[in-house]
Design brief:
The protein is 3% helix and 49% strand. The chain has one helix spanning 2-16; strands spanning 25-39, 67-84, 87-95, 100-102, 107-108, 124-125, 131-141, 146-153, 175-185, 188-198, 209-220, 225-236, 244-245, 261-262, 266-279, 282-296, 303-318, 323-332, 341-342, 382-392, 396-407, 417-419, 424-426, 436-448, 453-464, 483-493. The chain has 494 residues and is mostly beta strands.
């Protein structure tokens, strides 16, 4: 009798309750797996570990291996829920830090105290690699503007500072937790925004970080001309502890140890100028990000003035439908190590110019903690010039490049300096550092399996300059040695 009654109640519920109409969902995303070899990643001949936070020498890995070999993956899933003609709900899911992780990093052979599967039954995961919600925002459409409310990405110019991570292998994305209004009037695009960067330990203004500003872009396809400006102001309140630094207080014996202090009060202004012009088969784009303001507790002496800048140029000339040549150049400011000011500019980690130089955080290879990522690496303290050529076919794409780079700031005996790779200040240099970073030759290829799937890879050979032999130790003399990066990957975008 009980089962018959349950069936009657279920049938009544189905017949009486109106049928809900499912909202349409549009799915996009990306997935890729790569295998990478970094041969002689320390870029020196020595096999003795003299790494510390005052020199540029990365530590040796377990077994004193001088080569790194790892397989990584990238994964992101972007749902777009269409609510009605005026609103959509968008998001992005990924796995792990930097939208992915390493193959084999979460394998679990056996639980503590269990028996039987410790040797070869690798059939479990430890569950630590959780799903990450990178974006979640409401997109509202009106007659005058489009509004994005929630956590959404942002992009400007060449992506040197603000980069939305839209390419398949982009590990990071610039995001805002707030609101952006997008207004289009003719060829002008105006986007004011407000964002809460961090709330801090309390719900008061004393512990939060806010950012606001606008971008104004003129984009006229008929004239093949674009130019504009991005302006923003980021304000760290004095009791916020979200942003920390160990620039002035590093561990000199263990590069994986951070003696951090909270920055506290800080005001950072960004003015980013962008322009692009196409003339026939030739195009050139320029981005000039400028940063200024004050940073507290950077050197433990109160407020420190901040003045950083970069000049970036990308140019291309199409020889025909298949071949193109180009010249890229840039200058990214570095810091001298003086406590009175800070001048280092760090470009977005998605913005890379070579296959080896600047691309990897090499200290993360031998790090014994999980506080570092190999993909947290930035173009900084450098001036570079890159000659490039590209071939685009129906199924194959090839890119060739030669890049040479020198450092903007180097250590000088008896003076303060700044280690741009370890992000630490050197109070007094014991030796003088060379400015030559080296010359790199790169080859990249991509086979288009179909519209969504590609197989690719690249080779980067660095003829290492003496800049990377610096150890700040008068008794250690390093000799530069060439380095090699090889990668093969498979990815799908949909």
């Amino acid at each position: 009798m009980t089962h018959i009654l349950s069936v009657l109640i279920l049938l009544t519920t189905i017949l009486i309750i109106p049928k809900a109409q499912a909202l349409p969902i549009d799915w996009h995303g990306a997935f890729g797996v790569d295998t990478t070899l970094l041969d002689n990643f320390r870029r020196i001949e020595s096999t003795t570990d003299n790494s510390n936070n005052t020199g540029l020498e990365p530590g040796l890995t377990s077994g004193n291996h001088g080569a790194a070999h790892f397989e990584s993956y990238i994964f992101r899933l972007n749902p777009n829920i269409i609510i009605n003609d005026s609103a959509s709900l968008k998001g992005e899911f990924s796995s792990g830090y930097g939208r992915g992780g390493y193959l084999g990093e979460a394998s679990q052979t056996n639980l503590e105290g269990s028996f039987g599967n410790a040797l070869y039954h690798l059939n479990g995961q430890d569950g630590a690699n959780s799903i990450v919600l990178n974006q979640f925002y409401l997109q509202l459409f009106s007659d005058t503007a489009t509004y994005e409310i929630g956590r959404h990405t942002t992009h400007w110019g060449l992506g040197a500072v603000e980069n939305d991570g839209g390419k398949l292998w982009d590990r990071h994305a610039s995001s805002r937790d707030g609101i952006t209004m997008k207004v289009k009037v003719g060829s002008f695009y105006f986007q004011p925004f407000w964002s809460k960067v961090a709330q801090g330990a309390s719900l008061t203004r004393a512990t939060d970080i806010k950012q606001w500003g606008f971008s104004l872009l003129y984009d006229n396809p008929e004239r093949d001309l674009s130019f504009g400006i991005l302006y923003s102001l980021k304000e760290n309140n004095s009791f916020n502890a979200s942003v920390v630094t160990d620039i002035n207080n590093p561990s000199t014996t263990n590069p994986t140890v951070d003696n951090t202090v909270a920055i506290g009060s800080a005001d950072i202004k960004t003015t980013d100028i962008y322009a692009k012009k196409t003339i026939g088969d030739f195009d050139v784009a320029i981005e000039v990000p400028l940063m200024s303001g004050e940073i507290g507790n950077l050197y433990g002496v109160g407020q420190t003035s901040y003045e950083a800048k970069a000049y970036i140029i990308e140019s291309n000339y199409n020889l025909n439908e298949s071949w193109s040549i180009g010249l890229d150049a840039g200058m990214v400011s570095g810091d001298k190590g003086d406590t009175g000011s800070f001048a280092a500019m760090f470009l977005n980690p998605n913005y890379q110019v070579a296959n080896f130089l600047f691309r990897y955080n090499l200290r993360a290879i031998s790090a014994t903690t999980t506080t570092q990522s190999i993909y947290d690496s930035y173009v900084t303290n450098a001036q570079y010039i890159k000659f490039k050529a590209g071939y685009k076919g129906e199924t194959w794409d090839w890119d060739f490049a030669v890049l040479t780079a020198t450092a903007q700031e180097t250590a000088t005996t008896g003076s303060a300096a700044y280690n741009h790779e370890a992000n630490h200040r050197i109070s007094s240099s014991n030796t003088t550092q060379d400015a030559n970073m080296g010359i790199e030759v790169d080859i990249n290829f991509r086979y288009k399996w179909n519209k969504e799937i590609s197989v690719g890879g690249g080779v980067g050979y660095l003829m290492t300059g003496d800049y990377f032999t610096y150890t700040n130790d008068t008794t250690v003399v390093n000799t530069a040695s060439n380095a090699l990066a090889i990668q093969v990957n498979t990815g799908v975008s949909f």
